[in-house]
Specification:
Blueprint: E1 11-16, E2 21-25, E3 39-42, E4 53-61, E5 74-77, E6 84-87, H1 88-102, E7 120-122, H2 126-130, E8 135-139, E9 144-147, H3 149-152, E10 153-158, E11 161-166, E12 168-171, E13 179-182, H4 184-187, E14 190-195, E15 200-205, E16 220-223, E17 231-233, H5 248-279, E18 286-290, E19 296-300
Transmembrane segments: 251-273
Pfam family, one: Asp
Biased composition (Polar residues): 285-303
Length: 303
């Protein structure tokens, strides 16, 4: 698309919200989509560029002055991953850290059936959530990205009752050894620019309306209202799609480019749908259980 002039630059911007989102092709999103300026972090260079990856200096929870997960040295920024993902080893360290400090403050955190387990959620009030620590990920160059507890404690509904689920998951394998995957749980807090030209990623705090159709950037903007459908919008001085007045070969080229563009947008729609489903899933089936500390946990089949 860059070679054919459909988009002006080899970069794109993503904004994900609970109910909508936006994709800007060929540029960085404008100030209407963000609360502050972009903080730029160089991408990690590899022989084959498979992921959008940046270096990690530390991961801190709450007031901790040292990294809780010192073994994590890089982060993959991935809109196709619903949660924040770390290795099973790192998750064990995180679990021990939280349970040794917050058990008496947040119901259901400790015990055999803790809501830290994947798929197990708990009835927690906003006051309980506020007692949990924010996560601060410090990237290469000292760029600090903060994830508040209300963001990583996802909402899920079962039988008319609202539960909160831990938005950090653990897996095993080479992919996550020494890495953290910053998925939609993280990306909802930031407008993210993938600058392929300069091999860097930019982060800015997302505005509340960053996924609304009225927003403009300096590229070709596609909004995804309510995670359904696509509305192409013209932005800046970039050209619109048109085939009238072109030669047959140019028409064919534009059609090919349009198909590729729609495929890219479809990937973003899928990512946003997964994000919305994880944040506000439909009422599902599951089993619930009450505990001595007054909390109620549930295993939700659709979380």
């Amino acid at each position: 698309m860059v070679r054919t002039g459909v988009v002006p630059r080899d970069m794109f911007t993503l904004c994900l919200t609970d109910t909508a989102g936006a994709l800007v092709l060929g540029g960085a999103a404008g100030p209407e989509m963000r609360k502050n300026d972009y903080a730029w972090v160089p991408m990690t260079h590899r022989a084959v560029r498979t992921y959008y990856e940046v270096g990690v200096e530390s991961i801190k929870f709450g007031p901790s002055e040292t990294s809780v997960l010192p073994e994590v040295r890089s982060a993959i920024v991935d809109s196709g991953t619903t949660l924040i993902v770390i290795s099973s080893r790192s998750f064990g360290t995180l679990r021990e850290y939280l349970q040794s400090r917050y058990c008496d403050q947040v119901p259901g955190l400790c015990g055999e059936k803790t809501w830290l387990e994947t798929g197990r959620c708990a009835t927690l009030s906003d006051a309980h959530i506020a007692r949990l620590p924010p996560i601060t990920v410090q990237l290469t160059g000292g760029v600090e990205l903060r994830i508040p507890p209300d963001m990583y404690m996802l909402r899920a509904q079962m039988r008319g009752q609202m539960f909160r689920c831990f938005g950090i998951q653990h897996v095993t394998g080479d992919l996550v050894d020494g890495r953290i995957i910053l998925g939609d749980t993280f990306m909802r807090a930031y407008v993210t620019v993938f600058d392929r030209e300069n091999s860097r990623i930019g982060f800015a705090a997302a505005a509340e309306n960053c996924g609304m159709p009225a927003v403009r950037g300096n590229g070709v903007l596609y909004t995804l209202p309510n995670a359904t459908g696509v509305q192409p919008k013209q932005s800046g001085q970039t050209k619109q799609f048109t085939v009238f007045g072109y030669s047959i070969s140019r028409v064919a080229a534009e059609i090919i480019v349009l198909v590729l563009l729609l495929a890219a947008v479809a990937l973003v729609v899928t990512a946003i749908f997964r994000c919305v489903r994880s944040r506000h899933p439909a009422a599902g089936n599951g089993t619930s259980e009450s505990h001595a500390d007054g909390s109620q946990t549930a295993l939700l089949s659709n979380v």
